[in-house]
Amino acid sequence: MSRKQFNLTRISLLTFIKELDEETVDAQSTYFNNTIRWHIGHVLVTNEKFFFMYPKKSTNIPAKYADLFGSGTKPADWTEAAPTLDVLIKELEEQQNRINEFNDLFWKSNVSIKVPFGSIETYSDLLIMLSNHEAEHLGKIKAMHQVVTSNEYE
């Protein structure tokens, strides 16, 4: 069940962001402390961190993404260019495939990672939590899109 939830959320995210452009994903509204690009990258980095031990063990995405999209970061502090929207989309799709390749035994196994909230015992539980996290960021992305494409955008 958790994989269905994850795939539904990830497909919803990908479907929405594939309609965006580079200018929109970098628009910085005074109402938000981050951009749409940051939220997209943050979803990627967070799932990579919990499932593939990024940046210590994972080489699936560049290590510099932790400095760009990790918790507590923001585009105003970036000292190098962030990846393009097309690159982030490709990496999200590849990550989705990698997550879906885990077998049933993996999903039932105990998590050795401490999470900030919730009762997380198995990797299946972790996927539910991360799907919720991703859905929350998708909601923020949609709200930000509405603001930055409105006539009142500053």
Gist of the model:
This protein has 154 residues and is mainly α.
Name the descriptors.
single chain; 154 residues; mainly alpha; Four Helix Bundle (Hemerythrin (Met), subunit A); 7 helices; globular
Task: Provide structural commentary.
- The protein has helices spanning 2-17, 22-26, 36-52, 65-69, 85-100, 104-108, 123-148.
- It has 154 residues and is mostly helical.
- It has a single domain, classed as Four Helix Bundle (Hemerythrin (Met), subunit A).
- The protein has 7 helices and no strands.
- The termini are far apart.
Q: What is the H/E order?
A: HHHHHHH
Percent helix, as a range, is 55-70%
Give the end-to-end Cα distance, rounded to a whole number of Å: 42 Å
Find the count of extended strands (DSSP E, 2+ residues). Answer: 0
Shape: globular
CATH superfamily: dinb family like domain
| Biggest sheet character | none
Rounded radius of gyration (Å): 16 Å
Outline the low-pLDDT stretches: none
Report the CATH C-level class: Mainly Alpha
Into which percentage range does the β-strand content fall?
under 5%
Round the mean pLDDT to the nearest integer and report it. Answer: 91
Q: How large is the count of helical segments?
A: 7
How many domains comprise the coordinates?
A: 1
Report the CATH architecture: Up-down Bundle
Q: In the CATH scheme, what's the topology name?
A: Four Helix Bundle (Hemerythrin (Met), subunit A)
Secondary-structure content class:
mainly alpha
